[in-house]
Description:
eight-stranded mixed β-sheet; 32% helix; 9 helices; six-stranded parallel β-sheet; Dihydrodipicolinate Reductase, domain 2
Amino acid sequence: xxxxxxxxxxxxxxxxxxxxxxxxxxxxxxxxxxxxxxxxxxxxxxxxxxxxxxxxxxxxxxxxxxxxxxxxxxxxxxxxxxxxxxxxxxxxxxxxxxxxxxxxxxxxxxxxxxxxxxxxxxxxxxxxxxxxxxxxxxxxxxxxxxxxxxxxxxxxxxxxxxxxxxxxxxxxxxxxxxxxxxxxxxxxxxxxxxxxxxxxxxxxxxxxxxxxxxxxxxxxxxxxxxxxxxxxxxxxxxxxxxxxxxxxxxxxxxxxxxxxxxxxxxxxxxxxxxxxxxxxxxxxxxxxxxxxxxxxxxxxxxxxxxxxxxxxxxxxxxxxxxxxxxxxxxxxxxxxxxxxxxxxxxxxxxxxxxxxxxxxxxxxxxxxxxxx
Length: 372
């Protein structure tokens, strides 16, 4: 395509009622210059037509094959549930289209590896929705660490609530309680957070892990019905990073009465603390504090505007802001020929980390994983 022309996006999974596409992707694309949602698809033509009318999208389909075949579509955004990612990404790549697939990339490591191989073989632009890397706070934390603000990193800890996976569940989220779907506390909020953690501080050299299902039964919020869950709602990981720093992370299901999200980085020269209202760093507002040298009290650190590529846009909608920053980077990549967004190979590394954590929890043995 002409790198100066409008980038046409086709969204697979754009429900007219609710969902990540309608809450985040569509508002972001409507507000950003150089990008436009030109097509969408759902599982039924009636719902596709309703969504197209509601969001002002010119093309609507009841199947993904018709969408990926359209010449107006330059980038296919896959925003459906995880078990369908492989099929849809494969179709988009087969049509020679660039792909933006939401995280988790695959339903497990094997699918992610296969999709990364397809993207490499086809030599198409393939990005994964690890939006925390586009967060101004996370990007600034990475910069501060690399520029020596904390000196040598000695250790880093995270304590976080996952918000979901608590005592109650909404009907629309019951699929998150079945490990076969690949959409769990481990893969979604924990996976996003660990990507921000490792992107900023480096990968693990080795790790230990303990997981537990402390709520094997939860209550359906709408009816009071009891629903079974077979996904861990407690995750504890400790290990050594490749830098030698000690790492400790504890995620717990639901919302506690205490700390909702606290990420601390302790170094020889200073300390950083990142806070949020829960463990979804990819989409929730983050605050940053720091201290150095003789300072004994943390102070708020303002993030320079250079780290926020959308300015004040979506100041009241953190969901749309998170993907708007990623789409802005994608548009810049298209113009420059670079690939700055996390790609499928990055997603494979993150899937390897999650697989290592699962294996460590299963066997009780320390694990390593391929980090490059």
